[in-house]
């Protein structure tokens, strides 16, 4: 079924006698309302995501087994990294929500097509930067987790020593590199797909509105 906005835009361009005549302002207002609604939904989703991550990170602390393991960690750097990265991530999400709210307020108060297009572009960049940050953090955390596994896990250390004594150290590192690469691809791919599904659809609609505004300006 043809998009309602597309139908109205064609009506405005063709001036078909059988359809109601729409002015530039009528179509601009419709694009403005749709864009404002999209940004509002992105804002709401980001709030839900923040709550989800808070619950996900807080839940393990309620488990006795996790508290015991946490108490066994004698590496100050590891504990600091765990707490610091969590706090930093929450901070980034809050900043992301703040800028999204500003973008929503900006779109809600613009009074011309140029300002609306600038607000749409700004919103797209905010979301793209946020997704990019999460992908980078996924890589950093994955690398750090693997490093900790090879340097702190007793079973892995014993396995590595056994393989080294047998003279298969090169094969071990090659296999390890392949496993790490596959793990990185899976983690980054999953996160990219996750945000692609959540924000991708709304960003495509926002981009469509931007293109419609450019056509109106022409």
How is this structure best summarized?
With 218 residues, this protein is mainly α. 87% of the residues lie in helices and 0% in strands.
Domain count: the total is: 1
Largest sheet: none
Question: Strand-residue fraction?
Answer: under 5%
Q: Output mean pLDDT.
A: 77
* Count, helices: 7
Q: Note the overall shape.
A: elongated
Compute the number of strand runs.
Answer: 0
Share of residues in helices: over 70%
The residue ranges in which pLDDT falls below 50 over 5 or more consecutive positions are: none
Structural class: mainly alpha
- Give the helices and strands as they follow along the chain: HHHHHHH
Cα end-to-end separation? 26 Å
Roughly how many Å is the radius of gyration? 25 Å
Keywords:
218 residues; mainly alpha; 87% helix; elongated
How would you explain this protein's 3D organization?
The chain contains seven helices and no strands. It has 218 residues and is mostly helical. The protein has one domain (22-217). Helix 4 (76-109) packs antiparallel against helix 5 (113-152). The two termini are 26 Å apart.
Per-chain topology:
Elements: H1 4-14, H2 24-58, H3 64-72, H4 76-109, H5 113-152, H6 154-165, H7 169-217
